[in-house]
Amino acid sequence: MTDWVAFAGRLHPVVLHLPIGLVAGLVLIEIASMFSKATALRGLRAVFLWATVASAAAAAATGWLLGEQGYSGATLGWHRWLGISMAGALLVMAIFDLAGRAGFRRLMLVIVLGLMTVTGHLGGTMTHGEGFLGAYAPAWARPILGAPAVAPPSGGGEASIIIATLADRCYKCHGSSTQKGGLRLDDADGLMSVVEAGDAPGSELFRRITLAAGDADRMPPEGEGVSDEAIVAILHWINGGAALEKIRQAQDDAAAVSEAAGAQLEAVRARTGALVLPIEGENEGLLRVDFARRLSVPGVEDVAALAEVADRIVELSFAGQAIDDSVVTALPVMPALERLHLERTGIADAALVGIAETAPNVAYLNLHSTQVTGASLEEIGRIGSLRSLFLYATDVDAGAVAAFEAAHPDVEVTMGLSLPDP
Amino acid sequence: MTHNNHFCGRTRREFLWETGGGFMSVALAGMLGGDWLASQALAADGISVNPYRTPPGGGPVRRATAKNVIFLFMYGGPSQVDTFDHKPELYKADGKTIDVPTFGRQGKRAGGRVVGPKWNFKPYGQCGRMVSDLFPNLGQCVDDIAFIHSMYAESPIHGSALLNMNCGRLISGHPSMGSWVNYGLGSENQDLPGYVVMLDESGGPISGAKNWTSGYMPASYQGVQLRTKGAPILDLTPPARMAGGVQRSVLDHLAQENALHAAARPGNAELGSRISQFELAYRMQAAAPEAVSLDAEPQSIRDLYGLDNPTTAPFARKCVMARRLVERGVRFIQVYSGGGHNDDNWDAHGDLVLNHSRHAGRTDRPIAGLLMDLKQRGLLDETLVIWGGEFGRQPTAEYAEGTGRDHNSWGFTMWMAGGGVKGGIAVGETDELGSKAVRDRFHVKNLHATMLTLLGLDPNGLSYFFNGLDQKLVGVEGAEPIHQVIA
Fold first, then answer.
1. A residues 311..340 contacting B (CB < 8 A)
2. What is the mean pLDDT of residues B294-319?
3. Backbone phi, then psi, for B321, in 5-degree steps?
4. What are the two backbone dihedrals, phi and then psi, of residue A377, each rounded to the nearest 5 degrees?
5. Fewer CB atoms near the end CB (10 Å): N or C, chain A?
6. How close B199 comes to chain A (CA, Å)?
């Protein structure tokens, strides 16, 4: 199968070195011309300059074609456009040379050098992975050059070996900054796309890492293959059903080294099956927990897992879930809770016993379309912080509400609303 | 100076400064922005949204007061001076020819014959805001509404103005508001789309699906059209012969084949998007009919929205459906009032009274019902409701005869309610004829910025890297939210 366009793209790694060498030559000529007035230098410079323009254009063109072959991400975008800018800057430089403007030509050469450095670095990042340059640099230089992601410590079971291996050997091409072949292995969907649960030999991940060195399909393509220990761990994991939970758990443990809070959230998500969402950016503390979108009805054991993060929950919703009263009474004490959605749940008065202790600072309590009656109002009235109470489509009668409102003027009670008849 | 010293209308020094400075700043951005690059790469992947993960757009950066948006789009451009922008002086000038510059589909004019407002206004609610007799029901809700009387848009022509309002730009190809919201926050729903559009019975707005496109974002962010009659989503119902587990096994097999196909075509994010959309569609088959069925709605709700009145029923159905979708976690819902051409929408070029009586008559009760219903369910303070068209209308007549008004993008009224918006207020002003925004003028971008801010997003931070630019809903230049309406 001959694909000339793709083939031309593959020439990029060869072609790109031509302008780099020629620019170095231009710098030498420029320095030499500062000390010598020889006219031969001028001719030499023109030859070099136009050769550089041509080779830079060729590098940009082949690079464009290569970029279409399974690379993605913003690093590619920057590399591509800075590379094209460099070719353009060279052309401008050549035009200045024709016009005989030495000062401007030298200025452009400085700009070209700057662009070449950044473009080259980004190209290297795509080929060798994030942090290649900085990996062995002195500590003070690493923040500038970019250090590789630190692999989590191994030990603690096969799942953590898998995570460590993925981080060490895979993420640099299939991670957050580069996704060769469109594959991201630091993402659950991406990882599962190359795994056939229960069938290690049929899994692309396993096949690629176990190919003989030198096979075109082997992963990683360079350096030593994946360690035997990691291959065995991956084999066991896939044949054992490729449970994402195991990987997630290991991921949580790994993340705990640097981000204990993030791992805790992940664990709570896994155990509750609820949306556990930071309300102001990742891991900023306060949480919104939403059971409303869960595909199955949450039970007592699901909410028990909230205990770990109970003091961070500001919003909690069970809206539309047919929960038992016991789910509400099993809730941990949530001192930060401001908004509690229990609407459309079919809970009754028994659910609200002790609500003032469970949610002592709640300001918004939604009970619409539940079996709650006026008997609950006394219990609800003990919540001093309450400001909005929704009782639409409940069995609470208007008289009880009027008495409640009189006793609690700070609380706005909403019953059914209507418009005047048309 | 000789011609040698000019290049592209610049001196050589200017040219060099601009090119040199430009290249260097690009290079600098590349060197300094390591973290930023990594975050953008996250955004560029086309993998379907996992609600348990930080959404591609990064999730909320401030505490959100709105979780959902219902955008009630009054297609055609309602007249501000006949609806919510009370202009007592304009009544007196009725029939007089005056000098007032206008810009509509007839181009720019220096003046014309004033058409006085055709309806009286009266104060409503505790705030006493003036509302025209077109909206007796909506008047009951003014204490929850923030009017923005000083809106302006970039185009007085429907097609481009619709794109302006929906996508932030006059030209095609940019993602619409609902796409941005779902990109920024992720969908919280596993069995319904995060972005739903409901059209008028008379047809869609001009440019059709461009108004709910995901543009350069993955196709999974585009709006899904939901219909009020028949099958809610076209081609969703499985044929009878697919009963039992047949469809599941077909999908499983298809996924296998697609995976093989994908393996040979690395880097194709659209393929991943397509596979995930098959699965979403499968789950929607069960969820969508229930979400849009109004059978379970009690009589009190039917009365509240005007579901039993043939005039209001079509729009009322969409409003009830919008509420049901909000309850089911659909992030962004857009409902169109008006479609097709001429008097099928709010585009009152000929007979203003006929046109606006018709469309206000069809929507007044359902919209008031929606606001009341959201409020009684405790949803209004989590749901942002936006009302408005792509522009407003002129104070003067378009033709020598009749009451028709031409388009006017220099000044018009929109309103917001719920979702953390202050109620019972009005910001900005048009001139005394209602022709042009003169005080606290707000561009469409400011409206978009307000919406994103209420949802907990940073309008000037939420970006998508495309074509070498940090694309934003509010444009690369950015925009401030309308702080006065944010509670």
1. 319-320
2. 95
3. -60, -40
4. -65, -30
5. N
6. 25
A252, two tokens: 């949580």
State the smallest CA–CA distance between residue B363 and chain A in angstroms: 13
Q: Check CB contact of A420 with chain B, cutoff 8 Å.
A: yes
Interface touch A343/B377, C-beta < 8 Å: yes
Predicted pLDDT of residue B37: 32
Contact call for A343 and B38, based on CB within 8 A: no
Q: Is A220 on the interface with B (CB under 8 A)?
A: no
* Interface touch B303/A122, C-beta < 8 Å: no
Q: Do B41 and A293 touch (CB under 8 A)?
A: no
**What residues of chain B lie within 8 A of the CB of A78, using their CB?**
30, 37
The structure's pTM equals 0.69
What are the chain B neighbours of A369 within 8 Å (beta carbons)?
377
The three state secondary structure string of chain B is: CCHHHEECCEEHHHHHHHHHHHHHHHHHHHHHCHHHHHHHHHHHCCCCCCCCCCCCCCCCCCCCCCCEEEEEEECCCCCHHHCCCCCHHHHHCCCCEECCCEEECCEEECCEEECCCCCCEEEECCCCEEEECCCCCHHHHHHHEEEEEEEECCCCCHHHHHHHHHHCCCCCCCCCHHHHHHHHHCCCCCCCCCEEEECECCECCCCHHHHHCCCCCCHHHCCEECCCCCCCCCCCCCCHHHCCCHHHHHHHHHHHHHHHHHHHCCCCHHHHHHHHHHHHHHHHHHHHHHHHCCCCCCHHHHHHHCCCCCCCHHHHHHHHHHHHHHHCCCCEEEEEECCCCHHHCCCCCCCHHHHHHHHHHHHHHHHHHHHHHHHHCCCHHHEEEEEECCCEEEEEECCCCCCCEEEECCCEEEEEECCCECCCEEECEECCCCCCEEECCEEHHHHHHHHHHHCCCCCCCCCEEECCEEECCCCCCCCCCCHHHEC
pLDDT, tens digit only, all 422 positions of chain A: 678 888 888 899 899 999 999 999 999 999 998 888 888 888 888 999 999 999 999 999 999 998 887 776 778 888 999 999 999 999 999 999 988 888 899 999 999 999 999 999 888 888 777 667 776 776 666 656 655 444 433 445 777 778 778 877 888 788 776 778 888 887 778 888 888 888 888 888 888 888 887 788 888 887 778 888 888 888 888 888 888 777 777 766 665 554 566 677 778 888 888 888 888 765 457 899 999 988 889 999 889 889 988 999 999 999 999 999 999 999 999 999 999 999 999 899 999 999 999 999 999 999 999 999 999 999 999 999 999 999 999 999 999 999 999 999 999 999 999 998 76
pLDDT of residue A21: 93
Could you report the per-residue pLDDT of B235-273, keeping only the tens digit for each?
Answer: 778 777 877 788 888 888 888 888 888 787 766 666 766
Better-scored residue on pLDDT, A251 or B118: B118
Nearest CA in chain B to A190: B47
Predicted-complex ipTM score = 0.84
Please tell me the distance in Å from B425's CA to the nearest CA on chain A: 20
| Chain A positions in Cβ-Cβ contact with residue B375 (cut-off 8 Å) | 414, 417
**pLDDT for the residue A282:** 53
Question: Could you say which of B30, B50, B268 has the minimum Cβ distance to residue A118?
Answer: B30
pLDDT for the residue numbered A284: 55
Residue B415 CB neighbour total at 10 angstroms: 25
Chain B hits for A181, CB-CB cut-off 8 Å, are 266-267
